[in-house]
Design goal:
Shape: globular
CATH class of the largest domain: Alpha Beta
Largest sheet: 6 strands, mixed
Structural class: alpha/beta
Number of strands: 15
Oligomer: single chain
Distance between the termini: 31 Å
CATH superfamily of the largest domain: P-loop containing nucleotide triphosphate hydrolases
Helix content: 25-40%
CATH architecture of the largest domain: 3-Layer(aba) Sandwich
Strand content: 15-25%
CATH topology of the largest domain: Rossmann fold
Number of domains: 3
Number of helices: 13
Radius of gyration: 25 Å
Strand order of the largest sheet: 2-3-1-4-5-6
Length: about 450
């Protein structure tokens, strides 16, 4: 269980923006009007090596307990139970209000560490508000900007004393029993891409029915649609369950101006979060564009297995040249994961759709793979022997051993000394070796560096 950090404050001080900043995704709906958030929302946050569960709450309002705002406040009060730290957020530009002071009084009565966060602190207009916060008696306030990401280092230092000893132990995780992975479980397969690439048409072709609305207009799909279906493998006649997820088209960020489209794109990103394998659909008549690479990078950053499918292959010109050109551009533009599967399909004629599904199941197997620690360290010893780590400035970097802490996506923890001096090129060497030698194919891999704590560091 990860430690839990709760965000508390009056409406419209930027709690949901802070939540989104810490989880690294726009999970919480944000708008200028107060009171957008009503229910608690949980997210997995990562801050400079600290892992914790972050909880966004409704704005604290002084209303009748039977009213909607009053019930929202009751939800916030209940959510403190089980939390390890509270982030009390106020608007530094507006300064303290009577409602802020009421919240502070309530927090002082709780047996919970509180960190005061002065949000919207960019610029000199916030200085007086930050000074006022010293009067709350909850410690020094942190100057923060959730919108721009300023103050993350200060927030990390404030959270570290409360969360450091509650971090999950990667060694213990690696020694736990193997994660149960059932290759026959439902494959969660999301289809993403630019508008009008043929995502809904592809799903209709797989289902062999007009399940989703399609047409020549771009942007017909707005909500992410999930459809449970069974695919029959033509080679074995075995039926395998699939959950197909159709998503809204993702245009360049500068072109997305309407609020509804912004929400649709955010919904598509959430669909990626809940998928296992993501198919990025290209339009063969338009080739590979910069926006496609941005979408692919987003999918890989989320740790999902990625397949690139070129649709409308039946009308492609110079098919061989197009395929080779896209392959080369992908290897150059997605250097972090070379060799991403590339499949040419046609939703209109049904070309290679079974191949696409088979590749999806195969890459999920690689994405879910766990390597025994003994085999992993045999590879590790060979990798060190073939290419020892450098000694920058004459200081030797000692790499002791490696464990696989998680799967889906595969996550490894490397233990040693002076790891802060390990060059990124050597880190890439290890990741590429894991992928190439241990059968992980073109799936995203996480490598965390962990050094033992220095007992004399504070003396």
């Amino acid at each position: 269980m990860l430690p839990q950090v709760i965000i508390i404050g009056r409406p419209n001080v930027g709690k949901s923006t802070l939540f989104n900043r810490l989880v690294g995704k726009k999970l919480a709906l944000v708008d200028d009007q107060p009171g957008v958030t009503r229910d608690r929302r949980f997210g997995e946050a990562h801050l400079l090596g600290l892992d914790f569960t972050i909880v966004d709450t409704a704005g604290w309002e002084d209303e009748d307990p039977s009213s909607l705002p009053g019930r929202m406040r009751a939800q916030t009060e209940v959510s403190v139970q089980g939390a390890d730290v509270a982030l009390f957020v106020f608007d530094a530009r507006a300064g303290l209000t009577p409602l802020d002071e009421e919240i502070a009084r309530w927090l002082r009565e709780q047996e919970l560490p509180v960190i005061v966060v002065g949000n919207k602190a960019e610029g000199r207009a916030a200085e007086s508000g930050l000074l006022e916060a010293f009067s709350l008696g909850l410690g020094d306030p942190i100057a923060f900007s959730a919108e721009h990401g300023q103050g993350l280092g200060d927030l990390f230092e404030a959270l570290l004393p409360h969360l450091d000893d509650k971090q999950p132990d990667p060694e213990a995780e690696a020694e736990e029993s193997e994660e149960d992975y059932d290759p026959k479980a439902v494959l969660k397969l999301a289809i993403v891409g630019r508008p009008n690439a043929g995502k809904s048409t592809l799903i209709n072709a797989l289902l062999k029915e007009d399940r989703l609305l399609t047409g020549p207009e771009a942007g017909i799909t707005r909500d992410s649609i999930s459809i449970d279906w069974e695919w029959t493998d033509p080679k074995t006649a075995e039926t395998r369950p699939v959950r197909l997820i159709d998503t809204a088209g993702m245009r360049k960020k500068a072109q997305v101006v309407e609020k509804l489209e912004k929400l649709s794109v955010a919904d598509a990103r959430r669909a990626v979060d809940f998928s296992e394998v993501v198919v990025l659909l290209l339009d063969a008549t338009r080739g590979l564009e910069h926006q496609d690479l941005k979408i692919a990078s987003m999918v890989l950053e989320e740790g999902r297995a990625l397949i690139i499918a070129i649709n409308k292959w039946d009308v492609a010109e110079d098919a061989s040249g197009l395929f080779n050109g896209i392959r080369g551009a992908l290897d150059e533009g997605l250097a972090q994961v070379r060799g991403v599967p590339l499949v040419a399909v046609s939703a209109r004629t049904g070309k290679a759709l079974d191949t696409l599904l088979q590749v999806a199941f195969d890459i999920r197997d690689a994405w879910s793979k766990r390597v025994p620690t003994a085999a992993l360290n045999r590879w590790f010893d060979d990798a060190l022997g073939a290419n020892p780590p450098p000694a920058p400035g004459g200081k030797r970097i000692k790499l002791r051993y490696i464990t696989q802490a998680k799967t889906r996506p595969p996550g490894f923890v490397l233990f040693g000394t002076r790891l802060d001096m390990l060059p990124e090129s050597y880190r890439r060497y290890l990741i590429n070796g894991i992928r190439r030698e241990l059968g992980f194919d073109a799936v995203p891999i996480r490598l965390t560096l962990r050094s033992p704590k220095n007992p004399f560091a504070t003396k």
